[in-house]
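To: structure subgroup
Subject: Chain for Friday's discussion

All,

I'm putting the inputs and outputs inline so they're searchable in the archive.
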Amino acid sequence: LEELKANNLGFEDAGLDCISEALTHGCRLRRLELRQNRITFAGVQVLAQALTNPGCALQHLELQGNDVGCAGCTCLAEMLKGNNSLEYLGLQQNNIG
């Protein structure tokens, strides 16, 4: 599986546990779309930790239309310091600023 489009499915933060687990255990997912899933800072924290794993190959992450907020953006910015694969991060409509 290289691409997962899970937009508007009501994942919320708890739904990211399984995805994050897969990303830390060698999943070769390249594109992940999680638009409109009510994801907040708590979910972003779990996801960001998985994205710092050296084996994570994710290149495209879409989080538009969630509730990431400023704290979530700070968490993602920290993650980017240790991530070499992510090329696109979509954060539109996330109550930032």
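Points worth raising on Friday:
Strands lie at 3-5, 31-33, 60-62, 88-90.
DSSP finds three helices and four strands in the chain.

D.
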